[in-house]
Specification:
The chain is of the alpha/beta class and about 230 residues long. It is about 40% helix and about 20% strand. Helix 2 packs parallel to helix 3 and helix 3 packs parallel to helix 5.
């Protein structure tokens, strides 16, 4: 049984209302990370097995009368078998619910984890993958995440692997793109690549706009990057 650290469990307005588990631990260091204060900490939070975490999410969902549960904050695919068992446990307790995996796609694209494990455990049609693309080009990806530029390709390979499982864009998975750091040429190139994976993907691309929380503003300045598009908190 794999244990995972959680910063908190909470209600969120996204996806029409959902309950979220904010996980600790991530394999990127994005300059615009809203969860920076807890996502990168080696300790802190509460250490839980998948059964206890599933129970907490399900209880919160019943109390809020919502039918979407998700993991967010850090990177959910770290501790893969914890995630698989967690999703199985949540959906067994909530027969009408959908489980959302918000991921940067790195481990999926690298072949370190198998999406079909999760699909088999939770059931097709009950899992939704949201792959957050941190940039539209390798150069910008390296600048804003602190990771090597070649890892940019792993995010796109994650989408290829999901398509290879027969998943349908918009219904089963969706890419999102952090806006404001790339020029139009880079974005156009990304859209062409998405089209080559599945012609429906460009139409499902979800825009992400950086929110300038005080700690995000400070991180951006320290890293020497600044988005051309952003929103103020509140």
């Amino acid at each position: 049984m794999q244990l995972r650290r959680y910063a908190r469990f909470r209600w969120s307005r996204h996806y029409g209302g959902n309950v979220a588990g904010d996980v600790i631990g991530c394999n990127l260091r994005c300059a615009f990370c809203w969860a920076w204060r807890f996502a990168y900490k080696a300790g802190g939070g509460v250490l839980l097995g998948p059964g206890e975490a599933a129970k907490r999410l399900a209880l919160e969902a019943r109390g809020r009368r919502v039918y979407v549960a998700r993991l967010t904050g850090g990177e959910p695919t770290i501790g893969w078998w914890h995630l698989v068992e967690l999703a199985r446990g949540v959906l067994a307790r909530l027969p009408r619910a959908v489980f959302v995996v918000e991921t940067n796609g790195i481990l999926v694209g690298a072949g370190r984890v198998e999406p079909r494990d999760l699909l088999r455990a939770a059931g097709r049609g009950r899992v939704f993958f949201r792959v957050s693309l941190k940039a539209a080009s390798p150069e910008t990806f390296e600048r804003v995440t602190g990771a090597a530029s070649w890892a940019f390709e792993l995010q796109l390979r994650a989408l290829e692997r999901l398509a290879g499982e027969g998943l349908v864009p918009g219904r089963d998975y969706r890419p999102a793109l952090v806006l404001g750091f790339d020029d139009e040429k880079a974005v156009a190139g990304l859209l062409e690549r998405l089209y080559s994976i599945d012609p429906r993907l460009p139409g499902e691309l979800e825009p992400e706009v950086v929110t300038l929380y005080p700690h995000v503003r400070a991180m951006l300045r320290r890293r020497g990057v600044w988005p051309g598009l952003y929103r103020e908190p509140g």
